């Protein structure tokens, strides 16, 4: 990105020339749009790897005992599935892809505040990814600790722990730098007239997320370094045999990793707040309430981490306090859901594919959220912790929540990013398959968990087999839906009909510029005079 | 704007930077020295107090926050309050276990 004065001829960012050739035009580009797409490609690649591991795990669970692999391989698979999905897909998530691509455009800027830092973030992401994957092939074998790296096991196992941990450390830096970039961009580069309460709600969500990335991520960085140092020098920080405190590790881990849940979900909630007004042709209901609820979720999210530790041996006093605090998160989350539904009320609704994904999100996320309350209650948590119930809850919230909105955002913004439209009919089929497959796969886990199936077990009792079979068949349907969706989007991107500048009738700034956007986003920086969802006369009264 | 920034930048002389550095070194030596003395229950509080003083010097002088707009001070205050809350909440486990 460089200077841009006066009206310039339209050159799509996809075809813009630079001093570099071939692939270097992309991997050395500081254009926020190209960086967003590079994140998207990397993340979709890791998503497919994570899905493959999940598929193999479910296949193993088809019968009791050994079906496909031994127990150690299963341990490695659930760890890698978690590490890849969490650190390489869902934490960068919507923020890295759509935050990078859309945030500057939505606030009327030509790029992020620090474009080179942005490219560095992407490179750190790539380096972290390469290190994580390369650890699979080194002596000692793939990490088998679970994605939470709990001590003392992670200190003692002979598998490769230090390298994937170091990879997570580097990925953390990528996240911090992105956060710093977005906070600065929102404060410094808003178009004239765009005060905070004229910003799109996606920007509010990415801004809140950026704060969590900046404040919480260093904690996991320090914790990871402590584990690596302890593995090498046996210092006795976490290892009880050396006088260390294993619960200290869990505290430090969750002080980051619980807010990280909101790093994952908040941008998705922001995207929901974009899609619903567009497809209901209504000004969003409760703009300020939604904006403040993003901040509230980001804030309260720091103070609930020990609900992951109710059965770890922490004090009763803190169990009581953290249980109480956990319930508070439900309030701003509820504020969002009610405002979204109220926006749809009496709207002129077009059931486009992005909205179908959003409807699916509200349904699945509500189930995930309500079962979160079951786990947040001390008494029920003691029964359900470390069972499939937790696995189901987590996937309903993160997969049913964040990933469904990642898919929704792909269908919503890809026509803007590439200027071409996918096949709507095929997209609807993929929505249907994903919905059916998802619920077969994960709802059965609620029942399995309630009945006592522990998570991370390679074997199970024969009476659980029927539900396991339903769950495994569900995984096949779900994966079919996802592959169909990716194929359809890929075909649309390459050969689909031209989408036009504003296929959905959206009101935020990205819909006022050509598709794909020009290199400099705006010929002239717009002057903002009204809120982002200004449907005015178009609204159904 | 640029000039304004430059003027602010020179508000602190190199002598001050060196002085602050010496103070930081002194405080580090103090931390290491008193770690050998048995202060009982207040050992942690004393160590944290010295660390907080060092942070204050770094944030105010080296990071230039003392001379910056209010918004940056608010940001720092929010981060510090969050950290304090995390300490307090962890203490509910450590001291009541």
Largest beta-sheet characterization of chain B? none
Whole-number mean pLDDT of chain A: 93
- The percent range for strand residues of chain A is under 5%
Number of strand segments of chain A: 0
Structural commentary:
- The complex is a heterodimer of chains A (541) and B (97).
- In chain A, 65% of the residues lie in helices and 0% in strands.
- Chain A has 541 residues and is an all-alpha fold.
- Chain A has one domain (24-538): Cytochrome C Oxidase, Chain A (Up-down Bundle), CATH 1.20.210.10.
- In chain A, helix 2 (32-60) packs parallel to helix 5 and helix 4 runs parallel beside helix 14 (388-418).
- The longest helix of chain A has 35 residues, at 246-280.
- Chain A is globular.
- Residues 1-5 of chain A have low confidence and may be disordered.
- The interface between A and B is medium-sized, with 16 and 13 residues.
